[in-house]
Amino acid sequence: MTKSRRILVTGGAGYIGSHLVHDLIEAGHQVVVLDNLSLGRKENLPPQAQLIVGDIHNESDLERAFSQPVEVVFHFAAWKAAGESMTNPTKYAQNNICGSLQLIDACVKHQVRYFVFSSSAAVYGDPQYLPVDEKHPTQPVNYYGYTKLAIEENLRWYSQLKGLYYAALRYFNATGYDIKGRVKGREKNPANLSPVVMETLAGERPIMQVFGNDYPTPDGTGVRDYIHVNDLASAHILAMEYLLQNNKNLTVNLGTGRGHSVLEVIRAAEEVTGKKVNYQIVDRRPGDPPELVASCDLAYELLGWKAQYSDLKTIFKSMMPVYLVE
Ligand code: WQD
């Protein structure tokens, strides 16, 4: 039996956070969720989780979240649209940087020793080599990626100055829905490929756009490393255990090491659902690298973690109950 711990999850009602909250509750932990419900949904949460509707910017909300001792903080609450971060950097600076720093300060104040941070492959910028490992230079090409890097750097400082141990988990392309069907609330206003494909299949979008078919990739469309959200959730639990056992910081990629093109993704969705995706090829989306694939050797070496559910068929099967309910 693992020890039951009191855990705070910011953004725990959101897409990735809620999957983790279910796993933490099933593992017997006591979970407090701090979420302002701007993108998160209450119905994503299991009844055992305590929801505080509040903000990481708000001191009294943070005080409520830390009103009882917390051992580990998982920090998901953030804006995550890379494109929007280039037109509205202030929004990203305020939430992803200032909000995170306020949360980190509150952790220090309340003697939290372990902090698991949702970072992103966006910290690397355009890949200089593939697969991208953790030693790859970090030169973000969008402001969103910069906000994640800024917090990683601050965590390094706070760790040195205040003894906070952290895990920075650099997600590649998160996708899929809970294979156990526990999370039913869809993401609001998705711009990412797999929810766009599913909304098109569900008839909610008349047509979807494929951004460019003239990339130097096998079929000309962009290649990404798609990682199932349940695999991400399990990596978080292993990262927490790593911190608790080793008192050592951790920065790892979370992906599969395999890349799939946009057209491959569309074909897989068609095969799984038996429906045709209506799409048109349009110009490249500015800022998109041709290919982004993770090296995940370090996560395997340090955490014993490997993706289990991240093949395209399992991914789309898991999305069907969420998008294609009659
Ligand atoms: C995937 C592929 C698109 C939509 C983004 C963020 C990144 C990270 C993950 C959080 C690309 C193509 C997409 C569509 C398409 N976020 N595409 N039509 O851009 O790899 O990464 O999410 O950490 O920071 O930038 O993900 O899902 O938008 O795109 O053709 O309608 O699908 O061009 O090749 P991306 P994505």
Automatic annotation (TrEMBL):
Keywords: Carbohydrate metabolism, Isomerase, NAD. Pfam families: Epimerase. One of its GO terms (biological process) is galactose catabolic process via UDP-galactose, Leloir pathway. Gene3D superfamilies: NAD(P)-binding Rossmann-like Domain, UDP-galactose 4-epimerase, domain 1. Its EC number is 5.1.3.2. It catalyses: UDP-alpha-D-glucose = UDP-alpha-D-galactose. Residues 7-255 form the NAD-dependent epimerase/dehydratase domain. One of its GO terms (molecular function) is UDP-glucose 4-epimerase activity. Its cofactor is NAD(+). It comes from the Bacteria. It is an enzyme of class 5 (isomerase). Pathway: Carbohydrate metabolism; galactose metabolism. Homodimer. Belongs to the NAD(P)-dependent epimerase/dehydratase family. This is UDP-glucose 4-epimerase. It comes from Caldithrix abyssi DSM 13497.
